[in-house]
Amino acid sequence: MPATHLIANSPLFLRSTAATPVAAGACADAAVQCVHPARLPDWDSSLAGHPQGCIFHSAAWAAVLEGAYGYTPKYFTISKGGSLRSLLPLMEVDSWLTGRRGVALPFTDECEPLCADQESFASLVQNALACGRDRKWKYVEFRGGRKWFGDVPASLSFYSHELDLCGDEELLSNRVDSSVRRAIKKAEKTGLTVETSVSLEGMRTFYTLLCQTRKKHGMPPQPFKFFQKIHQHILSRNLGVVVLARFEGRPVAAAVYFGLGARAIYKFGASDENFQQLRGNNLVMWEAIKWHARRGFKTLQLGRTSLGNEGLRRFKLGWGATETLSDYVKYDLRNDRFMKDKDESSGWHNQVFRRLPIFVSRMIGAGLYRHWA
Q1: Is residue 295 part of a domain?
Q2: Do 40 and 147 have their domain in common?
């Protein structure tokens, strides 16, 4: 039975890789190569023309994850005539606390494998699982590629939202809900000013707001080193921007956006709750939409939303976004089975972190996120 049929219909295809030991850095299929994207000088330029390529497939994002958290890139590729045809990006997370595993990719809302066809996807997955068995990974988590897996259970599901940036400013505005347009007008009348920045100082300003927002949501902030690496590898190369709103000189809302090729991504947002009535988040998003549209981006991906977070879902839908379901797939290499997870973004820990001082949460986040992945 062909592999393309097996991967779409039975986990037995995945179990079959157990009989294919692979040395570290090698691949089971000679057509598949395991590479480090940051060591290939033309990697990002080869991605820019791919219709599904985005910043998360880039060498820049790989460098962020490797530099901030020490993960090891394991990018499985198929090339033809020197051109990249198919890609499954993975990072090896090696943690004394949570174990060793492969994740595609850590701290990435969604990262679709770039595959020419089902057969190439099957080959990439075979090689990734063979590498994982050799490296003694607990599991492999795929944060994309659901359509290629066929009828297998999802480990987690989220809402995904995407905006169409094609058209002039009037058309973009007409796609927005009337309530959102009113919020934008209110923000403009209050005297809020908006600026864009690719500087480290702009990132520091955003991070101050992020720490406040994470406290409100009952979560520790990511370590600042993570955002330093984002500045170093993404913002400083004009692959991203911080959009910042101020009221009388004081920062009240900010967001971080990434962009590669025709696809832009809203990655992080933050605000000062004391100025929520000024609608700074709405103005930041609207200015970012116009900014990216003027620069030729065709879509703006708004990231994942937990199925139970109705407030965030309404905020994203209010911009005229198209909503889809995004599934993760996780394969347990120790027990040869697909796994189901629980969305742990909400729980008892939220109450704890809401009560902790920000500096304590920062210390916990600095130690925790590398293991969390």
Answers
A1: yes
A2: yes
Residue 71's φ and ψ, nearest 5 degrees, are: -75, 155
Domain assignment of residue 359, yes or no: no
Report pLDDT digits (tens) over 110-155: 999 999 899 999 999 999 999 999 999 999 999 999 999 999 999 9
Same domain? For 171 and 304 the reply is yes
Identify whether residues 70 and 132 lie together within a single domain: yes
- Tokens 């058309």 locate to 171
- CATH number of the CATH domain containing 142: 3.40.630
Domain, as residue range, for 315: 160-325
Same domain (yes/no): 141, 186: no
Residue 62 lies in a domain: yes
- Tell me how far the alpha carbon of residue 279 is from its chain's centroid: 26
Residue 28 and residue 132 in one domain: yes
Tens-digit pLDDT profile for residues 238-281: 999 999 999 999 999 999 999 999 999 999 999 999 999 999 99
Residue 40 — pLDDT band, cuts 50, 70, 90? confident
What is the predicted pLDDT for the residue at 42? 85
Q: At what angle do helices 358-372 and 224-233 cross, to 10 degrees?
A: 60
- Per the structure, the count of domains in the chain is 2
Q: Left if phi > 0, otherwise alpha if psi is -120 to 50, otherwise beta: which for 336?
A: left
For the full predicted model, state whether its pTM sits above 0.70: yes
Domain boundary among 325, 341, 367: 325
Q: What is the 3-state secondary structure (H, E, C) of the chain?
A: CCHHHHHHHCCHHHHHHHHCCCCCCCCCCCCCEEECHHHCCCHHHHHHCCCCCCHHHCHHHHHHHHHHHCCEEEEEEEEECCEEEEEEEEEEEEECCCEEEEEECCCCCCCCCECCCHHHHHHHHHHHHHHHHHCCCCEEEECCCHHHHCCCCCCEEEEEEEEECCCCHHHHHHCCCHHHHHHHHHHHHCCCEEEEECCHHHHHHHHHHHHHHHHHHCCCCCCHHHHHHHHHHCHHHCCEEEEEEEECCEEEEEEEEEEECCEEEEEEEEECHHHHHHCHHHHHHHHHHHHHHHCCCCEEEEEEEECCCHHHHHHHHCCCCEEEEEEEEEEECCCCEEECCCCCCCCHHHHHHHHCCHHHHHHHHHHHHHHHC
